[in-house]
Specification:
It contains nine helices and 25 strands. By secondary structure, the protein is an alpha+beta fold. The chain has two domains: 130 residues, Purple acid phosphatase-like, N-terminal (Immunoglobulin-like), CATH 2.60.40.380; 275 residues, Purple Acid Phosphatase, chain A, domain 2, CATH 3.60.21.70. The chain has a ten-stranded mixed β-sheet. The protein has a seven-stranded mixed β-sheet with strand order 12-13-15-18-20-19-21, with helices on one face. Strands 3, 4, 6, 7 and 8 form a five-stranded antiparallel β-sheet that branches. The longest helix is centred in the middle third of the chain and has 17 residues. The two termini are 18 Å apart. This is Alkaline phosphatase. InterPro entries: Metallo-depent_PP-like, PhoD-like_MPP, PhoD-like_sf, PhoD_N, Phospholipid_Metab_Enz, TAT_signal. Pfam families: PhoD, PhoD_N.
């Protein structure tokens, strides 16, 4: 971006000051020109799940973030408004909603009646205070031949492992959308080399695990106290999905992980924990979903159309998956190949995905989900067998992956692109129907984003780079050393992905760089340096 470019952060700061000035006579404490913590909006504002005519607007009222009683035991009225200008002179939608204590005084407004492909600004008012200002954008009309789309892919933000300068950089990008692929929070006990990044303690310390609704609420609230994350939320609409750490590491459906210090729970016990995790997730995310408080089920797989340019399928590969094959994360690839009854998505979601792909009018068809889909073999330190696979990824569920690759190929789905995260490193791969027959054309491409702050052991980087040409020649780019996000620019002819990384997560501020750029030409499923 040139020196003359006005950043999204500057626009929002100006909007907040203008909004406060306009209302200063009524609410003298209302002007918040930055995204600093302030009552009753300490967690900021966010928008998400944009359609052509609506978007979800979110905030959560709070005073003492970690108090069991929260803000109040009563509902609180919240006003909201949407405008086309940052000074809030042209209000196009406004209304009132109750922030209820049973949902931690969170607010989800489905602002309908908006125009397609339009930038908007929004804010809330409650308890005689004005919230920070957020910027959002609707999708193009379903019938529109949209020319381009720019979005970022983020995931895996372990609060305790470091700071989030990547989100400061992301907030200053020129984007239409942010796609977050999970591990928004981590469930572990307080333990950090940074004194100001220690997790708030859960109700039961020593389990290395959250368990109660209060535990999950407090952890989500703590993560949103980070000003860089709040700025990124305020700058763009987000489409989010969860992975495992929002509930518990490597869980599968109602099977929990055997943690150090915690015994396996029964399905009924884990269902109670999952209900708390899902409820807190909903309370803190700008997501369009039908929550039933107390239920361990919450459907979040959904799709979004950006005109006729791109269809985005957002999957949930945790809630419905069968248990991982094998005794641990890593095992022989044969364990996944033989997992004929295994599923990452459940049968209903698999059918839903197939229907969405086969009926798509879009130029690009995107599957946004959590774990790496490409076959990925790692050297086995024990030497026998010579390689291992991560069975928590699609390698553990190879027959279902084969069905999806077959669907891409047999039905000639237009330009399939898979997005993933989870592994805290960057992988760009060409996906094949048979990974042992690379002489045949690939059927899709996959872009796996590195983490915002979660750790990938530096000692693993060089061995993986050395092994990929031998074991994984379909992998066109890999890096495990840098933290950051992916930036994607899509038009009818080309998909370009930039690897955006920060120099360090040891400090709150760090320069952002484009470490690599790759592109896919429509109709090829080939990844080439850009």
């Amino acid at each position: 971006m040139s020196d003359l470019t006005v950043s999204r952060r500057q626009v929002l700061a100006t909007a907040a000051v203008a909004a406060g000035a306009a209302l200063v006579a009524e609410t003298p404490a209302s002007a918040h020109g930055s995204h600093d913590t302030a009552e009753p909006f300490p967690l900021g504002v966010a928008s998400g799940d944009p359609t052509a005519f609506s978007v979800i607007l979110w905030t959560r009222l709070a005073r003492n973030l970690y108090s069991p009683d929260g803000l109040s035991r009563r509902p609180v009225e919240v006003e909201w408004e949407v405008t086309t200008d940052e000074r809030f002179r042209r209000v196009v939608r406004r209304g009132r909603v109750l922030a209820r204590p049973e949902l931690a005084h969170s607010v989800h407004v489905d602002a309908v009646g908006l125009e397609p492909g339009r930038e908007y600004f929004y804010r809330f008012k409650a308890l005689r205070e004005i919230s920070p200002v957020g910027r959002t954008k609707t999708a193009p009309a379903p019938w529109a031949d949209a020319r381009s789309l720019r979005f970022a892919i983020a995931n895996c933000q372990d609060f305790q492992n470091g700071y989030w300068p990547a989100y400061d950089a992301l907030a200053d990008e020129d984007l239409d959308l942010v796609v977050h692929l999970g591990d928004y929070i981590y469930e572990y006990d307080p333990s950090s080399r940074f004194p100001d990044r220690r997790h708030v303690a859960p109700q039961t310390v020593g389990l290395d695990q959250l368990s109660t609704l209060s535990d999950y609420r407090n952890r989500h609230a703590q993560y949103k106290t980070d000003p860089a994350l709040r700025a990124a939320h305020a700058a763009f609409p987000w489409v989010v999905t969860w992975d495992d750490h929002e509930t518990e590491n490597n869980y599968a459906s109602l099977v929990d992980e055997l943690d150090t210090g915690a015994a396996h729970q029964t399905a009924a016990q884990f269902a109670k924990q999952r209900a708390a995790a899902y409820r807190a997730y909903y309370e803190h995310m700008p997501i369009r979903a039908n929550l039933r408080p107390g239920s361990p089920d919450l459907r979040i797989f959904r799709r979004f159309d950006y005109g006729r340019l791109l269809r985005l399928h957002v999957l949930d590969t945790r809630q419905y998956r069968s248990d991982q094959p094998g005794a641990g994360d890593f095992g022989p690839i044969e364990a996944g190949l033989g997992n004929t009854d295994g599923t990452l998505t459940g049968r209903d979601q698999e059918r839903w995905l197939a229907a969405g792909l086969l009926g798509s009018p879009a130029r690009w068809n995107v599957v946004a989900q959590q774990v790496m889909m490409s076959r990925t073999l790692f050297p086995n330190p024990a030497l026998v067998p010579p390689t291992m696979a991560n069975l928590d990824q699609w390698d553990g569920y190879a027959p279902q992956r084969d069905r999806l690759m077959g669907l891409f190929a047999d039905h000639r789905v237009a330009n399939p692109v898979v997005l993933a995260g989870d592994i805290h490193s960057t992988w760009f791969s060409e996906l094949h129907r048979d990974f042992d027959r690379l002489d045949q054309a690939p059927v899709a491409v996959e872009f796996v984003s590195t983490s915002i702050s979660s750790d990938f052991p530096a000692a693993f980087d060089a061995p993986v780079k050395a092994a990929n040409p031998l074991f994984n020649p379909h992998v066109k780019y890999f890096d495990g050393l840098k933290r950051g996000y992916l930036r994607c620019a899509v038009d009818r002819h080309t998909w370009r992905t930039d690897v955006r990384t920060v120099d360090s997560i040891e400090t709150r501020t760090s320069p952002i760089r484009t470490q690599a750029s790759y592109a896919v030409s429509a109709g090829t499923s080939r990844i080439l340096p850009a």
